[in-house]
Backbone:
């Protein structure tokens, strides 16, 4: 019966690929529509004529168990498609030219580093990670697979018993400060919040689970870049029978009896029995749906607290760069001040923090021999003015600090350079406010308080991606596709 039903999935990023694969496995005819030339969404790659391979977006491979679970559901494993390298050291946090933390791979080595910096910190780290491990097991194995449609989903005896251990109502900042005094250790434990989309003071301590994900399960790198993960998921989806339509944006819908009956693209019209909106939720809700079928009002969206956008530079350099590791976090300015300029008083930052990824330190295939592949990301408030002049001003500022730290000239050896910012996120992904990560993971935007996975006025439309449950990041996006697929399947199986 399923095989007579056609599902359209809009958007071929991690969430869309995941949803399409799960629905095709369940026996549905699935068409995946992507407005861009390449599959992958934010995880697309730039392949240059002179031999560089740049990941356009994601570069941190955390939570490997989520990827393992996805591929296992399709009788595969990541190693069938790509090779993972565990990074050691995992990353460097740079506080000054001669002041940095190199975070080792093993917990034992991390513990020694903590103790050397602060007496008693090793024991505190052990307590912190034990709590974080519980949150990780509960959060990643239970909470994030719930659709967030009702409080009754959380009426699980174990969840109720452990509600205080999850620390939903305590801030991450307060939780970290309870355990550690040294400012560098606090920065190390709070930095994931910057990429979760809120200041640590506004992020629930539940998200210390990300510390466990990074410190305990490790920081990995898929050889060839994140494009290899996209290729693997595309292969899985294609094996299940998913049909791919690239360069084919969805422009609108036709409706019948409070359901979507037809998907209209820039090229054709397709009769459908169900739709997964894995492209930008706001774009589908506010631009593609007529007012009577929208989940939310413009006022609702205006009140959402957004995770950052980003100013990104993809740089190819004709020489090797000393001192850089694979992952480098430049915290040589105030994290609190930069955070305020993202979340509290949105503006281009005065003294920004930034992140530098140099995958050519691990993977010779992403740059010509003797060259470096450098990806620079500066978190930035969403919905800001974006001009070439601003991009260039921050490029010079960031490169000046990077060259000072490395002790060598970089700019005169650049043989490839491209920038990416707010306007590009909007143009390529119809991204709400030009955001890069989605909604901020604040308490008021957690679980059932996120935009609903279900359209409440059209029975056969469900949403996936970083603007709905479970939230921003690559593993959550993979999970989101699974959750949305389950919800649509349940609807179609009961709507007889």
Residues:
């Amino acid at each position: 019966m399923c095989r007579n039903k056609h599902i359209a999935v809009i958007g071929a990023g991690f969430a869309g690929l995941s949803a399409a694969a799960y629905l095709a496995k369940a026996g549905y005819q699935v068409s995946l529509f992507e407005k861009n030339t390449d599959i992958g969404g934010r995880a697309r790659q730039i392949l240059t004529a002179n031999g560089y391979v740049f990941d356009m977006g994601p570069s941190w491979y955390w939570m490997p168990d989520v990827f393992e679970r996805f591929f296992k559901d399709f009788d595969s494993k990541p190693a069938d498609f790509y090779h993972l390298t565990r990074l050691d050291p995992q990353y460097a946090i740079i506080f000054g030219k001669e002041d940095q933390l190199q975070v080792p791979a093993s917990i034992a080595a991390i513990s020694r580093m903590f103790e050397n910096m602060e007496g008693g910190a090793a024991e505190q780290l052990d307590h912190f990670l034990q709590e974080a491990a519980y949150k990780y097991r509960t959060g990643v194995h239970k909470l994030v697979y719930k659709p967030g449609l009702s409080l009754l989903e959380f009426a699980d005896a174990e969840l109720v018993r452990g509600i205080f251990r999850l620390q939903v109502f305590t801030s991450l900042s307060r939780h970290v400060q309870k355990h550690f005094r040294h400012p560098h250790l606090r920065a190390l434990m709070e930095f994931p919040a910057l990429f979760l989309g809120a200041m640590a003071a506004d992020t629930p301590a539940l998200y210390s689970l990300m510390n466990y994900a990074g410190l305990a399960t490790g920081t990995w790198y898929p050889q060839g870049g994140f494009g290899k993960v996209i290729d693997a998921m595309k292969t899985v989806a294609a094996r299940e029978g998913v049909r791919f339509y690239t360069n084919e944006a969805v422009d609108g819908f036709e409706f019948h009896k409070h359901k979507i009956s037809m998907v209209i693209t820039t090229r054709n019209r397709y009769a459908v029995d169900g739709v997964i909106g894995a492209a930008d939720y706001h774009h589908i809700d506010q631009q593609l749906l007529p007012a009577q079928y929208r989940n939310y009002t413009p006022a609702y969206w205006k009140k959402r607290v957004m995770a950052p956008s980003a100013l990104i530079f993809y740089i190819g350099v004709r020489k090797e760069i000393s001192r850089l590791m694979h992952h480098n976090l430049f915290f040589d300015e105030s994290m609190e001040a930069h955070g305020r300029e993202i979340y509290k008083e949105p503006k281009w930052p005065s003294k920004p923090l930034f992140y530098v990824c140099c995958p050519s330190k691990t993977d010779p295939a992403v740059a010509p021999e003797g060259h470096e592949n450098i990806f620079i990301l500066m978190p930035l408030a969403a919905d800001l003015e974006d001009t070439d002049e601003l991009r260039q001003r921050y490029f010079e500022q960031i490169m000046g600090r990077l060259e000072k730290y490395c002790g060598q000239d970089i700019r005169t050896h650049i043989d490839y350079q491209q920038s990416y910012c707010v306007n590009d996120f909007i143009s390529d992904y119809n991204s709400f406010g030009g955001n890069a990560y989605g909604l901020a993971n604040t308490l008021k935007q957690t679980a059932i308080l996120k935009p609903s996975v279900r359209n409440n006025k059209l029975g056969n439309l469900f949403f996936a991606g970083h603007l709905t449950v479970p939230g921003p990041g690559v593993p959550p996006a993979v999970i989101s596709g699974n959750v949305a697929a389950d919800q649509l399947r349940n609807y179609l199986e009961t709507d007889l």
About this structure: The two ends are 11 Å apart (CA to CA). The chain has a mean pLDDT of 95.
